[in-house]
Design a protein that fits this description.
about 350 residues; mainly alpha; 13 helices; about 65% helix
Length: about 350
């Protein structure tokens, strides 16, 4: 009983670390493109990730089986308390170190590394490396490359569709929360002036206020009588929610597998506890990784962020349905980098 409780506590620590490092990844494009602020993005990430975790009640069996180590390691080993504790400890500490450093890391890769490391520590090189290559390495290596390629293909198609619908993209100067449209005339200092003159003008704000001037993209035009920017923002939120939902669906069973093996609390209660711990990790400790995912891979606008999310959500949900282990982190980074490859702003 004591062993089981320790394993559950370590599993929840891993879930907390996962939430801290992974929860914001799905909404990184919302924050990075300026669609919304950090707090609103994090709130949306928490809600939709929880929804994915709850859905895992019904679709988790394949991934739970995969990440129990069955087939990779002897059955007698994967039910050993010492083995399960080593896996949970190794993976959670690895993810926490990365999180506090602001580095996005894959829970999937960390768990696989912990499974193999603990296995080698217990039985040497008797680990089933053919299963390791076929069931883990191939999908994990190929998925980010697929994400990059799909993004490079999809974004130009969506851009052509936007132009066909008569929706134009305009660059704006954003000062604080004020939007000055461009090209054309900008309203500043009490008068309309050509946007080209903004570079040579001094724009004054109250010295007691803290403002940041930056260029942002806005979309003008209507689709079926509805404002195009409003439609895109709504779709962007939905796509970000889909990524977070997919992550909850894909990651929760992987973590739950550790505690399910010892047969304590049952699958549904374990999933509920893991989902709660993941949510808390994201709420309390996501900011550093959020900055990396939102700003350090590439600059992006609303449409580009939406495209990256569509690709990420599609690949992760498809893989979850098949029970194939893919890393939401790597797929998401691949999609974002694909956008950077298209817009020429990828930060190698």
């Amino acid at each position: 009983m004591v062993w089981s409780l320790i394993i559950i506590v370590l599993t929840l620590a891993l879930a907390f670390a996962n939430g801290a490092n992974d929860n914001f990844k799905g909404v990184a494009t919302l924050f990075g493109s300026g669609t919304t602020d950090y707090k609103k993005a994090l709130t949306w990430a928490t809600i939709t990730t929880l929804a994915g975790s709850i859905t895992a009640f019904f679709f988790a069996e394949k991934l739970v089986k995969t990440f129990s180590g069955k087939g990779l390691l002897p059955d007698s080993l994967i039910v050993s308390p010492e083995f399960l504790m080593a896996v949970a400890f190794g993976a959670s500490v690895t993810i926490l170190i990365a999180t506090f450093s602001g580095v996005p890391i894959s829970t999937t890769h960390s768990l696989i590394g912990a499974l193999v490391g603990a296995g080698i520590g217990a039985i040497g090189l008797s680990v089933n490396f053919s299963i390791l290559g076929k069931s883990f390495f191939i999908p994990l290596l190929s998925s980010p490359l697929i994400a990059i390629l799909l993004t490079i293909v999809l974004y130009p198609l969506l851009r052509r569709g936007r132009k066909f619908l008569g929706v134009n993209r305009n660059t704006c100067v954003c000062i604080g929360e004020k939007i000055i449209p461009a090209p054309g005339l900008a309203y500043t200092n009490g008068q309309n002036v050509p946007i080209s003159q903004l570079r040579s003008m001094n724009i004054f704000v109250d010295e007691k206020e803290t403002c940041e001037a930056r260029a942002v993209d806005r979309y003008s035009g209507k689709v079926f009588g509805i404002d195009a920017q409003g439609i895109l923002d709504s779709l962007h939120f939905l796509s970000a929610g889909a990524v977070c939902f997919a992550r909850g669906l894909n990651d929760t069973p992987k973590i739950v597998a550790l505690s399910v093996v010892v047969g304590v609390l049952g699958l549904k209660l374990n999933i509920g506890l893991v989902a709660t711990a993941m949510a808390l990790g994201g709420i309390l400790s996501a900011r550093k990784v959020a900055q990396t995912m939102s700003h350090r891979i590439t600059s992006m606008n609303h449409g580009q962020g939406f495209t990256a999310n569509v690709i990420t959500a599609f690949l992760v949900i498809f893989a979850s349905h098949l029970g194939v282990p893919v890393s939401t982190t790597h797929v998401s980074c691949g999609s974002l980098f694909g956008i950077g490859a298209v817009n020429g702003q990828a930060k190698w």
